[in-house]
Amino acid sequence: MKVKAIYPGTFDPLTNGHSDLVLRAARLFDAVVVGVAANPSKQPLFSLAERVKLAEQAFADCANVQVIGFSGLLAQFAKEQHAQVLLRGVRAVADYEYEFQLASMNRQLNPELDSLFMTPSEKNTFISSTLVKEVCRHGGDVSSFVPAHVERALQAKFAKA
């Protein structure tokens, strides 16, 4: 049986922490879908199309990783993708409490979907998309937190602002 995992998120922007989890998951599963959530309630800096493109560039060399934008319920998206595993990154205890609630809800909505929590590599535990945007917005160096093409996209966004 081939096992497919979904790693969902807003990825606004994609960070090295996200990339690390995807690459590690790609070694564990037959297929990994990076599900880029539209999530307009978060008022993302990048459009859905831009976030999908940035993620596609990051994983272009990974044959078993596919990037797909989606809106709506994650549990439904997982069914449509025939995924068995929902992959979530957990950086701290506060993340776990929230993720535990999500996992329980998703299990109710899609009993065939099992949640798997992965911790980031130690060098990435403090990185969040929100912090990266703030540092870049104020002219700080984010090169060690995001892939180079994402850094350029961030700089271009903030240059226009």
Automatic annotation (TrEMBL):
Marked site positions, Transition state stabilizer: H18
GO BP field: coenzyme A biosynthetic process
Pathway assigned to this chain's UniProt record: Cofactor biosynthesis; coenzyme A biosynthesis; CoA from (R)-pantothenate: step 4/5
Subcellular location, principal: cytoplasm
Membership in a protein family: Belongs to the bacterial CoaD family.
Record-linked SUPFAM superfamilies: Nucleotidylyl transferase
Name of the featured protein: Phosphopantetheine adenylyltransferase
Cellular component, GO, one term: cytoplasm
EC number per UniProt: 2.7.7.3
Keywords attached to this entry: ATP-binding, Coenzyme A biosynthesis, Cytoplasm, Magnesium, Nucleotide-binding, Nucleotidyltransferase, Transferase
Residues annotated to bind substrate: T10, K42, L74, R88
Subcellular location: Cytoplasm
Reaction(s) catalysed by this chain's protein: (R)-4'-phosphopantetheine + ATP + H(+) = 3'-dephospho-CoA + diphosphate
Gene Ontology MF annotations: ATP binding; pantetheine-phosphate adenylyltransferase activity
Endpoints of the signal sequence: none
Chain positions recorded as ATP binding sites: T10, F11, H18, G89, V90, R91, E99, N124, T125, F126, I127, S128, S129, T130
Co-factor requirement: Mg(2+)
Subunit structure: Homohexamer.
Cytidyltransferase-like domain mapped to chain residues: 6-134
HAMAP family (UniProt xref): PPAT_bact
Nucleus keyword on record: no
Function as written in the Swiss-Prot or TrEMBL entry: Reversibly transfers an adenylyl group from ATP to 4'-phosphopantetheine, yielding dephospho-CoA (dPCoA) and pyrophosphate.
